[in-house]
Each structure stands twice: as C-alpha cells, then as structure tokens.
TrEMBL record, chains A, B:
Database matches in InterPro entries: 6-PGluconate_DH-like_C_sf, NAD(P)-bd_dom_sf, PDH_C, PDH_N, Preph/Arog_dehydrog, Prephen_DH
Native species: Stappia albiluteola
EC assignment: 1.3.1.12
Pfam families (alphabetical): PDH_C, PDH_N
Domain of life of the native organism: Bacteria
SUPFAM superfamilies tied to this protein: 6-phosphogluconate dehydrogenase C-terminal domain-like (SSF48179), NAD(P)-binding Rossmann-fold domains (SSF51735)
Pathway: Amino-acid biosynthesis; L-tyrosine biosynthesis; (4-hydroxyphenyl)pyruvate from prephenate (NAD(+) route): step 1/1
Catalytic activity: prephenate + NAD(+) = 3-(4-hydroxyphenyl)pyruvate + CO2 + NADH
Protein name, as recorded: prephenate dehydrogenase
Positions of the Prephenate/arogenate dehydrogenase domain: 7-296
Length: 309, 309
C-alpha cells in the first residue's frame, strides 16, 4: 500500500460531511491516522461506536496537535470559536481547511487565529443530503460532485495542490475561485432554494382553509419535492442565512421581482408570457442531467429507490 | 377472467396521464375495448405503435360513440372545446370524467355540453412525473396515489361508486370533495410549488454575475430539485395558471408575505426566527414519508435509481 496523503487527519465536527470524509478517507487510505473531535460527548461516543476514527477528543486543540490536515466541519457560525480554540495548537506546515457553505464569513472569522506557517485554504464540497449527524454520512457522498476551494491570493501552491489531490481522491472534481464569487454562486444555487423551500412549507403549514392532512395526502403533486430541502439541518441553515446575508438578500430581491412579474401575468391572463417562461426553464434541467448532476429517471427515481429498499 | 368494469373506454388525449390509464386498464383488464383519440396525427400514430389501445380515432366524437367511460385527458384549457365536440355523441348512461388539475374551470367549461342522461363526474389523479407524451406513461403511475373526484351535488351514486372502483383498480385511493375546495388544496400542494420552481429557475437563468455553467455544475447543492418541476409540460402549466387564477393568487400572496417576513429576519439577523421556521418544517416531511407519499432514502434515492439504470 502506498504512503497515505496525510500522516494525521483531524476532523473537527463529525456530522454528515465530517463523517463522510472520515469514511472515504478510511476507505481510500488517505490518512495514516484519523482524529475525530466534536464538542458533544454523545456525538463523540456515537462516532466511536461507528468506528469513524482512530482517536476521539472532546478537546479540539488536542485533536489538531501534530495533524497535517485539519478539516473544520461545523456550522459556519461556529467557525470563529473553533479557530480561536485550535489556532495555538496547529502544527507549522499543516493545512487548515473547512467545508462551510459560506466562504467570506468563514475567512473573516477564522483568518486572525491562523498562525504563521499554517496554510489556510477554505473549501466547500457541493454535496449533501437532507439528513444530518454522524450516522448520515457515507463514503460515496462526494463522488462526481464538485468541491470549491477559495485560497487566499498568497496561498502556497503546493498546499492547494495537495488539498486538491485529497478531494479528488474522495471522488470530487475541484474548482478554485475567490470567496466573494463563491458566496454569490452559492446564494443562487443553494441558499435561495433552501430558503424558498422552507418558506413554502411554512406557508402550507399555516393555512386555515386547507388541513395539514390534505397537504400530506396530496403532496405527490409537487409539494413533497420542497419538503426534502426543508428538512435540512436548522442550525446549519440559520448560520448560512446569517453569514451570507448580502448575497442572499440580492438573490431574494431578484426572485421576488421575477415572481411579481409572473403573478401579474397570471392575474392578467398573459398565457404567452407564462408559456415562454415555462418552456425556457426546461433546457436547464436537460443540461444538469447531461452534466451528470442529476438523474433523468422520472421523479428522481424515488419509486425505484423505494422498491429496492 | 371476470367481466371488465366497462365495455368500452374512450381516452381523449394520450399524454402522460392518458397513456398511463391505457396501460393500467389493459394490464388489469378494466375495459373490454380501449379507444384512443388525440388531435395530433403524429401522437396518434405513436400511441398505435405503442399498442396503447384497440382502436385509434382523430375524431373525438367518433371515439366516444357507445363508450361507457369517457376520460378526457387534455390540458384544462382545451376541455371546453372537447366537451362541445364530443357532447352530442355521448351515449345515454355513459360516465364522463376528466383528469384536469383544476376542477371549477373544467366544470364551467364542460358542464353545458353534457347531455341529459350522461353522468359527468370530474376527477383528478394526484400523480405525475416531469415527463410528458404517450411514451412517458406507465401502468404503476397511480399506485398508492390519491385520486380526487368532485361530483356535482345531484350526481348518481352508482356512477360515483363505479368510477371510484375504476380508480381503485388502477391502484389509487379515492377522495371526494367539492370543486372549490379541490382548487384551493391543489393551489398550495401543486400549483404554487410548480410556479415557484419555474420562477427560481428563471431567476437563475437571468443572472449576469453567475454563469449558466456554474448553476449547472453546482446544482446538487439544492437547485437541481427545483428543475424537475420546472421541466414539466408548459402547455399544461400555462393552462393551470390561467384556470385556477383566484386560488393561485391567494396562495402567492400568502407565500410572498411569508417570504417578506423571512427576508426581514435575514436582514436583521434574527437567528431565533430562522431557527424556529427551519425546525417546524421538518415534521411535515416526516408525516409525508409516514403516509407513504415520499421515500425516506436520502436525496430521493436518485443515486440508487441512477446506479440501477
């Protein structure tokens, strides 16, 4: 067996993403030793039961000692506190990265605690499910999905290359871009869809004229698709909303403008405007399927998956 | 083999729903003869190639002659014209139904053309996929899904019972309610989700700062879920918007109000309000899964379906 990419990998946080990294790193032999840390005793015990690491620490500072790669996998609102905690214990020459859904805010929170000689290269694997916690992870989560790195202008090229190699070994394709652009892109492809999904499920839950039981029974007509995103981890998504505010507000404003125009077309019976919009949107789905980012099987193949369970 | 439920079944329109009815009716022996009609020569030829019926007519009036059950499966905007066409040829004692996504408008359009002695019982199977046309149908489409009937107050009980039996034989569970309530329920569980999905895909398509290629590459972070609904048949959805205007505008107004409140919480950093909404919405998904209306497999099981293809 060849030499692992990193002698010691420390995972700070062991939810869906952290535990998926642990699993794939183990499966592919990417680290000589995997150290798992989380602030919850119960979660740490569960990680140990699942055999996700080689060593388990409640103390994040202890976990990162002598680690060559440290991956912070916590809700973005907690990244500043984690950096303050682990900063003094980071080894010279270590690579520090994260998996947060916002990048500008993570850089602002963590940057000041990164000691000289540590390579801080923020990252974001574009992968997930609606489930959370250490049991939800699986080794194939990153396969054929993109991972975005947002290295600072003065980042060490060798460190970027090594982290890129790590994500590729996890099954990902890797892009690099600047943090501001990342935050804008994610606001439209991820943050806005989640916010809209949470919102519509909330609206349906509040109706007096339609019962909750009716919403549930007839949900296969469209509504159920939104409930998957709206079942995502509330802490993670609260933090995303608080930490990518400007880009999200910008996208929300555009969405609402467009929705007003669509509402007007419905009110005034402008069938041509409706037909044109409804035709234009089909091509994006075709492109997503061609790019291997979704399945062409009807209904996301949920009936096939169900039958196979 | 037992006597079929109907001696002759006429399907007017042979898209996703019509062709699924044809397939399941054949598979379960629900009709002695299946007559298929559609106004497009090309589609009719395709239906014949697929062997969906026993007889094929471009003339809808000819197709319904002597039929015991006539199911109109066309976009709701076309139902008035179809009723005018077939009305004089309907057999005394026949049951006339439809599968349209709006019911008040269909009743207003079709009602005046239904001759005395014909039982008109509007219906709506709550099932579908993002695909359309005769090739998209399959016999299992209605299995474990609800079908809503909206019979008029003076409808014949025996006819309602027979149509109920038909849908149950197709695999559905059947509810009856009045047309206005149907239109309100569907506005929230189906029409609003589709409109919102079309809208957000349109918003993403219009951005200058984020490229279309970026939207596609990173779509697995949430966006792709919306593109499925936004790939649905444009004619069908244009007609739904035009024919359930009042209920849709009411639900859109509520949605926008709620979205404004959510936007305000984001702008002012009200983490508690965000967390509360994001927690509340989880329980609806659990209920939908418990009711057998969606899968608990992560990501709708799309990866499993993909691997199985």
């Amino acid at each position: 067996m060849s030499e692992p990419l990193f002698r010691r990998l420390a995972l700070i946080g062991i939810g869906l993403i952290g535990s998926s990294i642990a699993r794939v790193a183990r499966e592919k032999g990417l680290a000589g030793e995997i150290v798992v840390s989380t602030r919850s005793e119960e979660t740490l015990r569960r990680a140990e039961e699942l055999g996700l690491g080689d060593r388990y620490c409640l103390d994040a500072a202890e976990a990162v000692e002598d680690a060559d790669l440290v991956v912070v996998c916590v809700p973005v609102g907690a990244s500043g506190a984690i950096a303050r905690w682990i900063g003094p214990s980071l080894k010279k020459g270590a690579i520090l990265t994260d998996v947060g859904s916002t990048k500008g805010s993570v850089i602002r929170q963590m940057g000041e605690f990164v000691p000289d000689g540590v390579q801080f290269i923020p990252g974001h694997p574009i992968a997930g499910t609606e489930h959370s916690g250490p049991d939800a992870g699986f080794a194939e989560l990153f396969r054929n999905r993109w991972c975005i790195l947002t290295p600072p202008a003065d980042a060490d090229e060798a460190a970027i290359a090594k982290l890129t190699q790590f994500w590729q070994a996890c099954g990902s394709m890797v892009d690099t871009m600047d943090a501001d652009h990342h935050d804008l892109v994610l606001a439209i492809v991820s943050h806005l869809p989640h916010i809209i999904a949470y919102n519509i499920v909330g609206t349906a839950d509040d109706l007096e004229t339609v019962t909750k039981s009716e919403v549930i029974k007839y949900s296969a007509s469209g509504f159920r698709d939104f409930t998957r995103l709206a079942a995502s981890d509330p802490t993670m998504w609260r933090d995303v909303c608080l930490h990518n505010k400007d880009a999200i507000l910008e996208m929300l404003a555009r969405f609402s403008e467009d929705l007003s125009a669509l509402q007007r077309a419905i009110r005034w019976g402008d069938g041509d405007a409706l037909f044109n919009l409804f035709t234009r949107t089909r091509s994006i789905r075709r492109s997503i399927i061609e790019a291997g980012q979704d399945t062409a099987v009807p209904n996301f193949g949920r009936d096939i998956a169900e039958a196979g369970e």
